[in-house]
Structure formats: structure tokens, C-alpha cells
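re: that chain from earlier
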Amino acid sequence: MPPDKDIAIIIILAVIILFVAVLLLVGLAVKLNEFSRERDYIEREIQRTTGAEQRHWKREKRRLWLTLLPFYRR
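^ sequence. v structure.
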């Protein structure tokens, strides 16, 4: 291949990789924002409740943390 085609291929691959990286970062930001909101809600419920209901919310908090693991289904 002529050198100018090699440079074009490298530039195209770099753009594709950059695009995929940006998509992954946006997806991660959305997931972390959703996680943070849910965690804050559960924390408020834990503070608001007592007894069996508080134990329920603490279990929900543990389940929420497990959702950060890949392939974990709720």
C-alpha cells in the first residue's frame, strides 16, 4: 500500500476508536448518575424508617451495590 493510504486508514481507525470511547464514557456517566440518585433515595429511606422497614432498605442498598458488578441481574 502507498504510505498515504496507510495514514488515511490510521486516521479513520483513530476516529472510530475515539467515537466508541466517547460513547462508553457517556454510558458510564449515565449509569453512575442513575446509581447515585438511587443510592441517595435509599439512604433517605433508611434514615426515615425504623425496624423491619429499615432492614428492607438496607437490603435494597446491598442489592444496589451489587448492580455495579457486570452481569448481575436484579
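The chain has a mean pLDDT of 92.
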